[in-house]
UniProtKB/TrEMBL annotation:
It comes from Streptomyces sedi. It comes from the Bacteria. One of its GO terms (molecular function) is DNA binding. Residues 112-271 form the DUF5753 domain. This is Helix-turn-helix domain-containing protein.
């Protein structure tokens, strides 16, 4: 959980605690008996350590005589859901819709800051590499197989590399050159694509070598869209960061990561070395 989610849950919990006390329940134990809940659940909700469900909110409001607050509280719970969105729910109809949702965000953004320690950033992927990625997504999340359509939507974002005044600051970990999606031929095609896009005038491609001293631990991948939104993905959820104080932390992290990166000729050498690695591997 990030600070923004924690703060939202803590504020909600404090409000619910006030409702409980105003209704005459002097302790969490008394309220637990009235609702047939475990006392520990009451404590976790009031202290912001557990996200209450919408049904929990309904029971709480009914037990404390605060039904007029129900709509507002459910809106808060849904806002927390938006901040921390379960990926299986996000992908329940397949991966194409999620890729479609990203296109307007890209259209509105002028400056991108991208950090991917182990995977090539989606907007500069080849179709073969993207297909291998989405095959894994479909299998892992057990969602409808629309990988081909998802690849097409992802590749639509590439048009922004060539038009307008958008600026792309992309950082990859050297491991991204070696994380093998699709086999040697797919990887060599993807690495050749990197050599091409690094020549684009408004795209800066940096790579952090595996042995480079780092000023900050690599952490999860993240994508920054101007100074208004950061998207962070884990295996289970996608986090949308919009609070200015938290966005400043990602800005600082990106700047520290850049200190370890190499650019230009050094990037080309790392990519060519990775291509040579795949040349040595047997193909199917």
């Amino acid at each position: 959980m990030t600070t923004q989610v924690e703060e939202a849950l803590q504020a909600l919990g404090a409000r619910l605690r006030g409702f409980r006390k105003d209704a005459g329940f002097t302790s969490g134990r008394a309220f637990a008996r009235a609702t047939s809940w475990q006392e520990s659940k009451v404590s976790r909700i009031e202290n912001g350590r557990q996200r209450p469900s919408e049904d929990d909110i309904r029971i709480w409001c009914q037990a404390t005589g605060q039904n007029d607050q129900l709509g507002d509280l459910i809106a808060i719970v849904r806002h927390v859901d938006e901040l921390w969105l379960d990926l299986r729910r996000l992908l329940r109809t397949g991966a194409e819709q999620r890729q479609q949702q990203a296109i307007p965000v890209y259209g509105k953004t002028r400056v991108f800051r991208i950090w991917h320690p182990t995977v090539i950033w989606g907007t500069i992927q080849t179709s073969e590499y993207a297909a291998a990625v989405f095959d894994q997504v479909v299998g892992f999340y057990e969602v409808p197989d629309d990988a081909e359509a998802a690849v097409a939507k992802r590749l639509e974002r590439q048009r922004y590399l060539y038009r307008g005044e958008k600026i792309f600051n992309v950082l990859l970990g050297e491991q991204a050159l070696y994380t093998n999606f699709g086999g040697p031929e797919t990887m060599k095609g993807q690495l050749d694509r990197l050599l091409a896009v690094m020549r684009l005038p408004r795209l800066s491609l940096g790579i952090i070598p595996r042995t480079a001293p780092v000023a900050i631990w690599p952490g999860n991948s993240f994508s920054m869209f101007d100074d208004r939104l950061v998207l962070v993905e884990t295996y289970s959820a996608e986090l949308s960061v919009t609070q200015p104080r938290e966005i400043e932390m990602y800005t600082k992290a990106f700047a520290l990561l850049k200190q370890s990166a190499v650019y230009g000729t050094a990037v080309r050498e790392l990519v060519l070395r990775a291509i040579h690695h795949y040349d040595q591997l047997p193909t199917d």
